[in-house]
User: Fold these one by one.
Assistant:
Number 1:
Amino acid sequence: MASRTVDECVVDWAEIRDEALAGLTVSVISPKVQLPALPHAVTLFVQRSRDEMVLLKDLAKILEADAGLTIQLLKYVNSSFLAVQKRVVSAFQALSILGCQHSLRFVIATGMEAAIRAHDSKLVNQNAFWSTSLQKAIFSREIALLLKTDPEVAFVGSLLQDYVLPVLTNDLFDDYCQFVQSEDTNAQTLSEFERATFGWDHGLVGACLAYDWNLPDELVCCIRYHHSGLEILSDPRLGRSPVAATALSALLPDQFCQRHHGLELLAQLERTWPAFCLQRLAESVDRQYVQMGLGIHNDPLLPRCKSLANEHSACSVGTFDAAGR
C-alpha cells in the first residue's frame, strides 16, 4: 500500500522511504558481514500477496511448502491471545481468520526471525533477544491504538526494529565488544557508537535490507526511524503513525541498553499526554506476553516501571497533547 490516512493527512510511504534511505543500499556494510536471506516461502508469499486478486488458497499452498512457517502460524492462531472458538488445523483456515494483511505481517516477522536464528551469535542471547523484541512489539501496538494508527504495522515494525543486530554483532564481534564492555555508564547509545565506528547504524542496515526484500514501505520506515526518540511525536507526517509507536517502544530497556533513561522519558511523557499511562500499558504488555504462550521467559515490564513511579528525572521533554500534536 503506497499511502495511508493518518490524522486526516495522507502519508506517502514511498516518498518517506526514499528520504529515509537517501539512496543508500546494503553495499555500505562491511564485506565481513554475511547478511541473511529470507526463506523462499516468505519471499514468494510477499510477492504474491501484492496481487489484490490472489486467492487465500494459493497463499496457503505457499505456506504449506514450509513446515516451520505453517507450524508457527497455527500455533499463533490457536493461542489464547486470539481466542478462536474452534481449533484451526490448516494454513487456509488460519489465513481466513487473520486476513491477508495480518497474515503477511505475521509471515514476514516469523520468516525474518528464522533467518536471523539460523546465524549463531556470540554476543546476543537469541531467546532473550526475541523475548525483548516481542515485549517491545506488544508495547508498540498498544501505543498505536492510543495514536489511532495501524496497530499491526506498529507491532511488526517494532518486532523487527533490531532484527539485524544478532548478525551484525556476530560478524563484527570485536567492534561491538568495545561498546558492550564499556564501563562508562554515560557512554553514547548503540546507534551513536555504530555511526562513529562504521558510518552507519543497525536501523539503516535493517531498513536497506528490508527494502531489498521488497517489504512494505511502512515497515522499512519503522525500522529506519526506530531510534528517533520522543522527538518523532512532533513530526507532522510520522507523529501519529506506526513509526512513532515503534520509536516509543525502542525506549524500553534491552540487552544493549539496560539503563532506565528510556523509561524515564516515557514516565515524563505520561505527565504531558493524559491518555498515556505507563504502568497500565506495562500491565497490558505483560498480560499479553503470557497469553501468547510462547514458553520463553522474559523480564516483566511492570516491576521496572513501578520502580520509577516516584523517581524524579532531570530530563526534559516537549509537550504532547492527547491529539498527538
Number 2:
Amino acid sequence: MFSIIIPVYNVENYLRACLDSVMNQTYSDYEVICVNDGSMDNSLLILEEYSSKSDKIHIIDQLNNGLSVSRNIGIQKARGEYILFLDSDDWIEPNTLKILSEKQNGEDLVCFNGRRFFEDGTTEEPDTGIEENNLTGWEYYNKYALVSRKFHFVCTVLRIYRKDFLFQHKLFFEEGILHEDNLFTPIACYYAKVVKVITDCLYVYRIRQGSITFKRNLKNLKDLIHIANMLSDFFVPIKDIDKKQIYREIAGEYMIYMTEKSNIFGLKYKEIIQLINWMSFKEVCIYPRHKRLFFLLNIHPLLFRSYLFLERKAKQLKN
C-alpha cells in the first residue's frame, strides 16, 4: 500500500490536475493524505469535492504552518508501507504506482526519474544518465548528487520512502525553513541501506515563477546557511564516509555562494559571517581555494571581497 502525501496551499488553479493524476492511477492500493495548510482560495472546497467522491482521499485542515509541517503530519498519519510526496501543483503519470509496486522489494528508497513542465506548455525531456541499479544510499548519493541535472537530485519527490525506515531514523522535515529538501535528502541517503534506482519517468514538476523555489529573499539566504550548518554538524563527526561528496552542498554551494551574494539583500559580510558555523565549515572545507577564503573571512571581510575581485579579474584576463 502507498500513502501519497499532498501539502496544499493556495493552488486552486492546479489542484484538480494533481488530484486527477492520483485518482486515475492504474493501481488501486493507496491512500491520499491532503494537508490543507490554511489555503485562502478555493483549494479546500476542491479537496472536499474530490473527497466526497472517493474514500481514498483524506483531508487534514490546519492553520498555515508551512510545507514541512504538512509533510510531517502526513507521515504521522500514513498507513501505507511506502510514502510518496506529491506537490499540489505537480502530477504523477497514470502508471506510477503500478510500476513502483512491481519494482519495489522492501528497499528503503525506490528512486525514479521526472521531467519539468513550464507555464508556456513546453515540457523538457527527462534527465539522462540514470541507470537501473541496486545501491546503498551513500553509493546512490555519490553517483548522482553532484551530477548536473535539470530536475535537481535533492528534490524529495523523486523517490518513495519505506515508512518504517523514516520512523526508525526519525527522518522528518525541519520545520519553519525553506529548501527543506536540501537538508532531508542527504541525511536520508546516508541512512538508507538498500536503494533501488529505476529509469522510469514518473513525476511531472510544474515550474511556476511565483513558487517558493523562485523567490529570492532574505529568508531564503538565511535558511540555506542554516541548512549548511546543520549538514556540517551532522556529517563532520562521521568517520566512515568520504566528505568530498557533501562538499558542494556545504562548503561550495551554500557557504561561499551566500557570502558572495549577500549584497543582493543589502547585507554586510559581517552579518552573514555571524550566521555560519565556522568550526564545522573548517572541517568540511577540503579544497585549497575555500581554505584560503575561510582564512580571509576570519581575518577581515574586506580582504575576502578583495580576493574574490582579483580572482574574477584573473579569470576575465585568462578568457
